[in-house]
Amino acid sequence: MKLKFSKMHGLGNDFVVLDGVRQSIDLSPEQLRLLASRNFGVGCDQILLVEKPSQAGVDFGYRIFNADGGEVEQCGNGARCFVRFVHDQGLTEKHEIRVETTGGILGLRLEADGAVTVDMGVPVFAPEKIPFLSLTDELVQLLTIGNEAIEITAVSMGNPHACTWLPISIRHPLLLGAVDRVTFPLSAAGQCRLHADCRTAGDSTACFRTWGRRNAGLWFRRLRRRGRGNCARPARLASACYNAWRRAYYCLGRRGHIRADDRPGGYCLYRRNRDMKSEEIAKYLQDNPQFFEEHADLVARIVIPHPHGGRTISITERQMLSLRDKNKLLEAKMDELLQFGEENDTISEKMHRLAVAMIAASSFQSVLHTLNFHLRDDFSIPHVALRLWDRSDNTDELPEFANVSEELQVFAETLSQPYCGSTSGFETSSWFGDAAEHIRSQALIAMRSGGGTVGMIALGSEEPQRFYVGMGTLYLERLGEMASAALVRVLR
């Protein structure tokens, strides 16, 4: 069996996403476990299945399977991947969709900036709906683990969670089925870092963001409304979590926001910001130079890899190295430009001598001699040949007026600049006589007068790269213009 799949992640929680709309999918728990295996399968925390809806008013079915093959009710990070997947795969063009899960209906929205917002619905604290076996509806419950009593709060966001200060077992007789556990280690400064273990999916890099922050705020407000005096310790936890929830909370270099809606029922909206691109960061720093003044200590603390070794250096030292390397490149470029300038001066001097000599030539043969002599001695071009289209009675015996094909004349007419390259396929190779078999590269220059093409000059070399495609042809064009003017003058 072959299935098409996509690999996606939300804040580090990775998923294998399957399109059950355009292909038939019916996987057993054993097949799901194999697919999720990081050793023998694709590897993922959970498998997400997109299906056709089974009821009106819903766009898709959304099923979630943990790595052990068991189906679960809810996954907020998976829901964000879900909406991107159905858009990227062309399954919908709607920016706001409703999906059905075993835990209820979810509202998903793709924002204009690429972020995804998930309406997680109403948090459920009623024990019988979580489910959590309890004789009371108190927010804080006691669980006896061995000889220790642990305070927890049970809550469901479509899937059950047990929230506590310290790690607890995933299973407990009062927790009817597996639950996600969320723990809150408290620092000496009174700040808490939320940690999540998602049942059989294991430690989560992101679920502590989606559950902890959104429910901490709601939990805090619920405690505040109840006014329980004996809830000081849980209230301290809720207050710490609420403060964390109100800030932008970072994880693995990415940022998301949780917002508890003030609508009746306290809906939770989970919004994931799109990752900033390096170009956007660079533009921000360019547009806000005051950043470096406001965070001068940060710039001093940042260390980055040395460009020429394995050690790290400060960003200031790296800037100095970068400027030094830039200076070296500029110096090399300047040396190269100076060399080109000197070479151009030399070529210009040679072209000047050629022009003076051709002006002094008074006959057709003297022009040819001058052209051959200067190209051979000044420019080291060993083979020169030319052909002229128009013939007169006294030129029939000259090789320069030998017949050329109509195709070559058309080719010369269409040349906007000299041709440089191989001799293969050109009849011009025969113009070089006995040396023809040794010619490996050539330059073909059209000669023009009065707006029309009157002939062609061929320059040949035994070196394959003497005349090559893409080389500069400015001086070759000037050579063609001078030779045309001189030859037309003496042939009148």
The number of strands is 23
Shape: elongated
Major sheet summary line: 11 strands, mixed
Helical content (DSSP H or I, runs of 4+) = 25-40%
* Poorly predicted regions: 181-195, 208-255, 262-270
Q: What is the residue-mean pLDDT, rounded to a whole number?
A: 78
Number of discrete helical segments = 11
Helix/strand-derived category reads alpha+beta
Radius of gyration: 40 Å
Strand percent estimate:
25-35%
Distance between the termini: 85 Å
Write a compact overview of the structure shown.
With 492 residues, the chain is α+β, with helices and mostly antiparallel strands. 33% of the residues lie in helices and 25% in strands.
Describe this structure in words.
The protein has 492 residues and is α+β, with helices and mostly antiparallel strands. 33% of the residues lie in helices and 25% in strands. The protein contains eleven helices and 23 strands. The strands form four sheets. Strands 1, 2, 3, 4, 5, 6, 7, 8, 15, 16 and 17 form an eleven-stranded mixed sheet that branches. A six-stranded mixed sheet has the order 9-10-11-12-13-14, with helices on one face.
